[in-house]
Amino acid sequence: MQDLVKERLPRFTPDEAKVVKGSADWIGVNQYTTEFVKGQKLVQQRPTSYSADLQVLLYISIYYCASSLIYSRNFAVERNGKPIGPRKSWKNFVLPGMDQPGNLTRDQYLRDATRVRYYRSYLCELKKAIDGGANVLGYFAWSLLDNFEWMYGYTSKFGIVYVNFNSPTLERHPKASAYWFRDLLQH
């Protein structure tokens, strides 16, 4: 990185470097999508840009949801040779499981088999990573409840519990994925 961004990168004093070195005892990963990365020398742009500084070609496998809000990208995160997330051929997709479009009936929302497949696949691969030596401290499914999405308001359904935002009491109904998680956690 120092060779790439040169003087734009702040320099640490020797004392600052000592303070920073080894100071992180926990790193959290908040993953929305995954992109494949291939090293590629890019022409430096003026003014400089984040994308040019990366010096990589990003390859994205996309399977669009009906809502086009969230699309699945094959998971291929790897750290020190230990995979985290489903490793599939670039031609095989892990179907999106987080988002449901805002034009389904309540019963359709409650039968979210795609979300169950997504979580099952993701957690099976996470277990393989743990078995392979990855030090995983926890996992949070997004999200417990359908909620407000900045770009699409209440029409995008992320939760394992359906929320009727047209109800004065915001009535809630567990989806199939909520029951799947319950059964998983009871074992």
TrEMBL record:
<protein>
    <submittedName>
        <fullName>Beta-glucosidase 1</fullName>
    </submittedName>
</protein>
<dbReference type="InterPro" id="IPR001360">
    <property type="entry name" value="Glyco_hydro_1"/>
</dbReference>
<dbReference type="GO" id="GO:0005975">
    <property type="term" value="P:carbohydrate metabolic process"/>
</dbReference>
<dbReference type="GO" id="GO:0008422">
    <property type="term" value="F:beta-glucosidase activity"/>
</dbReference>
<dbReference type="Pfam" id="PF00232">
    <property type="entry name" value="Glyco_hydro_1"/>
</dbReference>
<dbReference type="InterPro" id="IPR017853">
    <property type="entry name" value="GH"/>
</dbReference>
<comment type="similarity">
    <text>Belongs to the glycosyl hydrolase 1 family.</text>
</comment>
